[in-house]
User: What shape does this take?
Amino acid sequence: MLRGVISIILCVCVVFFLYVLCVFCW
Assistant: This one.
């Protein structure tokens, strides 16, 4: 259970980081 939650949080962090990176690239 906890491992699944941690993996979901990590995925959200990675997607958010890529989104911020794309915004700064524009």
